[in-house]
Please model this.
Amino acid sequence: MALAAEKNQQTAGGSKMDTGGTLLTNPNVKPAMAARPGEEPKMTSRQVCVFYGQKQALFNVDLDIPSRQVTALIGPSGCGKSTYLRCLNRMNDVIDNCRVTGDIRLDAENIYDPRLDVVMLRARIGMVFQKPNPFPKSIYDNIAYGPRIHGMGATKEELDEIVQTSLERAGLWNEAKDRLAQPGTGLSGGQQQRLCIARAIAVSPEVILMDEPCSALDPIATARIEELIDELRENYTIIIVTHSMQQAARVSQKTAFFHLGVLVEWGDTEQIFTAPRDERTQGYITGRFG
Model:
């Protein structure tokens, strides 16, 4: 599914015409929302549109994701934030009727280049899903699985170090070190989610995508995951989808607000929540809709 932004023709008023002659109307399209000087973007998106069959789900998304910060994607259900997140590591490729156009880059490299190895891309851009999904394997093998298939652990000692380091970074080592041979599914919900985070970072990704990682967790487990996110941003670029505006305010430095498939506004989290520029953003964060 190669991106075809260069084949699209721009029409007046922010609409866009693809080579098949279909008008991709977006009356709310805005100029590219770029990172500020000194905030080098890790990933960039330009004119990204997503279609499920004939239905258009995203309209001309322009967004820069700054390096080693947490960017929160917020908006009401069905607004396109999870669809956009899945574009960033090509998870939409597995959906038969999904089509993506536009340009998405990781360190200036087109991630939809047909020559790109998607398996290696997903090693560089890890993902943590809404519901914890540990493999039906031991805690140890949950972490070691990725490094093994990527040839990262040549010896048992090297694998042991990767497993321990990953569990330590995920804040799970002290709870799991005496039960590494036990099934990962035997952990509590919050522990399973931290195990999935440890599994994601075991292959040394550059970016971590999180799709509502706390929605199935209790408040105590949620607080632990949020603390972990704040710790991880020292080494990773993190993009998190959340329905909780309070969570976005707590964990992120940047926030992007989506509505009806349109990226309405993007900026510093404090600015988005205290002085939004768009009345739709104001309406959402004050609870007038959502």
Summary: The longest helix spans residues 156-169.
